[in-house]
Amino acid sequence: MLLTTVFPPPDLRKNFDQEPLGKEVPLEQEVLLQCRPPEGVPQAEVEWLRNEDVIDPTQDTNFLITIDHNLIIKQARLLDTANYTCMAKNIVAKRRSTTAAVIVYVNGGWSTWSEWSPCNNRCGRGWQKRTRTCTNPAPLNGGSFCDGQPFQKITCTTLCPVDGAWTEWSKWSACSTECTHWRRRECSAPAPRNGGKDCSGGLLDSKNCTDGLCIIFTPQDYATGDVALYAGLVVAIFVFIVILMAVGVVVYRRRCRDFDTDITDSSAALTGGFHPVNFKTARHDNPQLLHPSMQPDLTANAGVYRGPMYALQDSSDKIPMTNSPLLDPLPNLKIKVYNSSTTSSSPGLHDGTDLLGGIPHGTSASGTFSYLGGRLTIPGTGVSLLVPHGAIPQGKFYEMYLVINKAESGLLPSEGTQTVLSPAVTCGPTGLLLCRPVVLTIPHCADVSSSDWIFQLKTQSHQGNWEEVVTLDEETLNTPCYCQLEAKSCHILLDQLGTYVFVGESYSRSAIKRLQLAIFAPAICTSLEYSLKVYCLEDTPDALKEVLELERTLGGYLLEEPKPLPFKDSYHNLRLSIHDIPHSLWRSKLLAKYQEIPFYHIWSGCQRNLHCTFTLERYSQASTELTCKICVRQVEGEGQIFQLHITLGEHANSFDTLHSHNSSAPTTQLGPYAFKIPLSIRQKICNSLDAPNSRGNDWRLLAQKLSMDRYLNYFATKASPTGVILDLWEAEHQDDGDLNTLASALEEMGKSEMLVVMATEGDC
């Protein structure tokens, strides 16, 4: 009996499972057109048409067709305004989806303001005007017109011109020998200003002052007396010239005789019989002391010119030489990259202890990782770095580190109304070649239940400036990372190592920041004074850990479990007060009724370890019991009350130990020990979900089930979208991670075969 294999007949259904929808998008925005082709035998191939022309992403890189057949326009251009059609075809037939019209519109933008017009009033108060037009750019394809006014007016005042005017004439002067007297006036009543006219008329006035008694000579009288004077002057000049010429002749003859004598003397000098007094023989000891422009003569008897010697430039103009370096020394970091052939001869390769020699203990971790990956954790801080399997090139070993930066307030990236929500964390070294993203986990103190937040991830450049990496919910295909935000931490998929910090800003001043209040007291009190410190900290593990270590060095201990406090972006300060002190035994040294911490000191997040101190004084050393109440609240906001019962000298029940139990946790995990999902199970899940299918139960549904679907295009651009999602799951569940949550998601997806694999190979 012959067995025959029955193949289903070729077919292609008519209706698409999902068709693209028309959209109106602004210029340069990303556009996603979805298409799920009909089922067919064999499976249909998908092409996209723009105005009936086939789209080729290799020719136009602004287009991207994902593995699940969606079309992405990376940055919408005006020329992308068109009709788009999804076409599916196999050997049986072709099917076309409904046409989706994409309209790329341009919102209007204002041009720059024109120059202010001249003041319309030439004298006194008026106004000036400037204009702008909605042409930068002009609205297109239904884009909105510019908001605001096309002109502005301001008042102006032009100074009025003032014409000059004369003062009164002065009194007449005394009568002069010429029988005249004078008077004057000034152009200063008022003086001309602001372009006014000058005074017309003369400044001086004169007149005869003897009523004709003075004898007045006529010009003819003066001319007759001057003739004799001029004649005598001409004769005197002639005689002077004759005498001068005679003296010149005598001098000339004497010089001719002296010239003959000089010739004779010069001949004698040439024969060595005479040396002029301004020439001397050269010194043999140091010929370089001569004038620097003269070439030294090495002969013993040569005559050398002894010109004036000039001092060198004063030493005060020289650069002072000190023992201090011109640049600050770099941290004691040793960064190495090993080839697989050299690891066997490198003792202590995995401890990484020499990598962070200059970093304070408890704020860093380091280790050496290979192709198998691993995890760095800073205990008690909530900061970790997951290096996935395959992130490091095969055959390479990277020494990597993780550091919490205790930066000064001026170095943190808070700007305007932004607030720093996490510690600044450095993962390095920078510039490493990574084959897949690593996952950096940092804690934050934002109340994410409030929808008023604008979250940003920032990185620090080599110049020390803070630059925006991504604003959440505004990602594009060019965004270099992905942020998975949870209630108290943020998991960041990174392709580049560096220094990162998480910041936020509220839309309408209603965002809430989580704070924690911690009260410390001295462990030993030998004086009459007793101080209670109330710390106001961000609600992150690293902030509390830092204060615990600080107070431990100062001899303080934690009185009660820290309490949370919601702090609202409302400009209101934080107010602290102490009440119900037993006044018969204690008194408060606080002069005011309360203390306040300014709003911005808290909201900016740039100032660490903010606290207020209440100093009490007991009347007797015998008083060892203290009961009081401390109230902490934001003005017109939330608050907390601490009811304290303290016995001085007894702190056996200190809460310090409750927050330091994990300080000895391992900081470095290597290879399979760092991951919850066994490698074999992981590979089978990826093989099952990476390929898209028409029912949609692929990696996209897994991301949705695990609440990682905020921006699926990031995963779609990766070689294994499922693998990146599982890396993110590993980072989220590093503390409580068993495979039950993942198994539940796979079960809801209908992937029962994966449950069998996990049950047989994993620990579910």
From TrEMBL:
Q: Which GO terms describe its biological process?
A: anterior/posterior axon guidance
Where can this protein be found? Cell membrane
Q: Cite a single GO MF annotation.
A: netrin receptor activity
Against PROSITE patterns, the record matches this protein to: DEATH_DOMAIN, IG_LIKE, TSP1, ZU5
- Location (main, coarse): membrane
Q: Which Gene3D superfamilies match?
A: 2.60.220.30, Death Domain, Fas (1.10.533.10), Immunoglobulins (2.60.40.10), Thrombospondin type-1 (TSP1) repeat (2.20.100.10)
Q: Which SUPFAM superfamilies match?
A: DEATH domain, Immunoglobulin, TSP-1 type 1 repeat
Question: Topologically, how does it sit relative to the membrane?
Answer: Single-pass type I membrane protein
Q: Which residue numbers delimit the Death domain?
A: 696-762
Record family assignment: Belongs to the unc-5 family.
Q: Under what name is this protein listed?
A: Netrin receptor UNC5
Q: Which organism is it from?
A: Coturnix japonica
Its encoding gene is what?
UNC5B
